[in-house]
Structures are given as C-alpha cells and as structure tokens.
C-alpha cells in the first residue's frame, strides 16, 4: 500500500529508480523499461489516462510515459521530467527527483483539479549522447503536440529539484555578476526561461512563492548561457511554445552531478516537497 506520508512516498520512489540495475541509461533498455513500467503504475493510480509513447532510435524502442487529467479541456499545461541517467550513475537528483516530483504533482492535482488539462510526461533519452538531437523523448513528444496543434499554455520541465545547501558559497554561477542578484547559498529553487518569455517565468516564480516556503528566484537569459537550455523544455521552445525549467541549478550547485555520488542520501526531501507544492500551486492558478 502506498505510504500516506508524502516525504516517505518521495523517498520510496527515488529509492526504486536509483536501485535499478544496470543503470537506466540509453544502453540498458531493460532498465529503462523497468523504470517506465514503475512510473506507469504510479501514474495509473491518479490520472484519467496513461499510455506509453514509443519511438525508435538506432533500431531500439524507447518509451515516454504520458498521463493526463481533465482530458476534455482544450487548454493544457505540460509538466515533464526525464527518467534516464547519464552513464553508470544512480541519478538521484538527475533526475529521479524530477520524476518523483512529477508523480507527486499528479497526485496533488488529481485531488484538487485545476481548470485546464494537464499532461504529465516522463521522458527517455534526455541525456547524452542524444541530448540536443531530435531523438530526445521530449522532442518526439513536443513534435507530436505541434502536429496536433495543441493549445499549450506552458511546458514546465522538472530538472533536478532535490539538492540544497545552506553553506556559504555553495551556489556557483556562469558569470560573476550573478552574485549581485542571487544568493551565494544553494538553498533556493530556480525558474529558468529564455529571453522574451519573462512574463510566464515571473508568473510561475510568484505563484510558487505563494504556494510554498522555499525561496524561489527566476531568470530569463539567452540560450547561449550554459545551462539555460539543458533539459527537455528546449524542445518546446523549438516549436514556439512557452516553457520553463524548474531546477536546483545542477552543476552550478550539486558536486555529484553526473557521478556515482548522485545518491538518495544527498537529497533534501523536505525542501524538495516544498518545490513540488509550489509547482502544483502554480499550475492550479496559471
């Protein structure tokens, strides 16, 4: 039976994903399928519909897992997170944290439904060697929505939402002047958008602040700045949709990025839960 304590539920899901062996990278199809089946089973408890979106890359079949609540509304919000990992790493923060956030937001919004359709997408093939190519699971999904002429308010990518630090100078930045505007302690969550999409980025930031106790900062920056387009939201930008990334800033903070040290023990589940609450609140009120 599913735990009623949300923190324990988050830990249970992260522990499952990080324990899958061989590691859930693009070479290990059986591990990706095991992860996808787990995500599907969790989604099925709360969504109105769930399905696998299968696609082929280099002769192998990969799967996105996509679920929906309020399917009869025309306007929709997409929330996505990738479940594959980079190389032989456990991928607790990158990106089991985003996946369990996706599942918990689905649970919350299934009980307190927003006045729009919400699609929840768990993506494969976000990591290298397919990052930045049309073989990314999120590119496949975004292209399908574009062809369907889906009416999308915004896509929200959950990309590493579980690593926090209160230590001075634990937060790093791509350029020194960022220190004038953002904390030097890695104890906040970021809402990242590209230039020209400041309205939606700030709207989500402000709503997340209202809906949770986590400090929330936002930035709109050119995509040439390293990290700004380093997740699945990039593919929705490609097709002209508004999209943002919710992130703990990855390698600008987490010393275990893309390493064997990215384990469950490094995550702060209490703060992660506040991020999740903030995103759910934002989606409900957008």
Automatic annotation (TrEMBL):
Query: Which SUPFAM superfamilies does its entry note?
Result: Zn-dependent exopeptidases (SSF53187)
Query: What InterPro entries does its record include?
Result: EF_Hand_1_Ca_BS, M28_fam, Peptidase_M28
Q: Give the domain of life.
A: Bacteria
**Residue ranges of the Peptidase M28 domain?**
64-281
Membrane-spanning segments: none
Which Pfam families does the entry link to? Peptidase_M28 (PF04389)
Q: Which PANTHER family match?
A: METALLOPEPTIDASE M28 FAMILY MEMBER, PEPTIDASE M28 DOMAIN-CONTAINING PROTEIN
What protein name applies here? Answer: M28 family peptidase
């Amino acid at each position: 039976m599913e735990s009623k304590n949300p923190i324990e539920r988050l830990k249970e899901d992260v522990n499952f994903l990080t324990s899958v062996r061989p590691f859930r990278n693009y070479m290990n199809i059986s591990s990706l399928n095991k992860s996808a089946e787990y995500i599907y089973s969790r989604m099925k408890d709360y969504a109105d519909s769930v399905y696998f979106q299968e696609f082929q890359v280099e002769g192998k079949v990969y799967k996105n897992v996509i679920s929906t609540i309020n399917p009869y509304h025309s306007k929709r919000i997409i929330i996505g997170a990738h479940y594959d990992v980079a190389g032989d790493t456990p991928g607790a923060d990158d990106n089991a944290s985003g996946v369990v956030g996706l599942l918990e937001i689905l649970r919350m919004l299934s009980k307190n439904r927003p006045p729009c359709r919400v699609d929840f997408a768990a993506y494969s093939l976000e990591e290298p060697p397919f990052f930045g190519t049309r073989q990314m699971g999120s590119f496949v999904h975004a292209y399908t929505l574009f062809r369907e002429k889906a009416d999308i308010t915004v896509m929200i990518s959950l990309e590493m939402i579980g690593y926090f630090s209160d230590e001075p100078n634990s937060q790093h930045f791509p350029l020194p002047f960022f220190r004038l505007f953002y904390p030097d302690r890695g104890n906040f969550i970021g809402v990242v958008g590209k230039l020209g999409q400041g309205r939606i980025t700030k709207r989500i930031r402000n709503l997340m602040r209202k809906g949770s106790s986590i400090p929330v900062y936002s930035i709109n920056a050119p995509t040439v700045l390293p990290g700004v387009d380093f997740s699945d939201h990039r593919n929705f930008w490609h097709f002209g949709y508004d999209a943002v990334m919710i992130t703990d800033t990855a390698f600008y903070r987490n010393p275990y990025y893309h390493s064997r040290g990215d384990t469950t023990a490094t995550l702060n589940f209490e703060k992660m839960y506040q991020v999740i609450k903030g995103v759910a609140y934002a989606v409900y009120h957008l």
